[in-house]
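User: Teach me something about this protein's shape.
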Amino acid sequence: MSKLFRKALEDQRVFYSRKLNSLGIYDQEVLSSMTLSELKKEYQHFYSSVPFMKLTHKKPVQP
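Assistant: First, the predicted structure itself:
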């Protein structure tokens, strides 16, 4: 069971590292020194925080 758990953790680490590396912000040395929790937080920051643009319907100002 522990082998499966280690494999799952390593798969997650590889997934998050590849995604963050593709952004070009982090190099592999920095990514390898980050914990899995840090990788997840950074991934969520860049991929889940899609900018939200609120559409407003403004009425023209009349003199």
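Now, about its shape. The chain has a mean pLDDT of 83. The chain is about 65% helix and 0% strand. If you'd like, I can walk through any region in more detail.
User: That's plenty for now, thanks!
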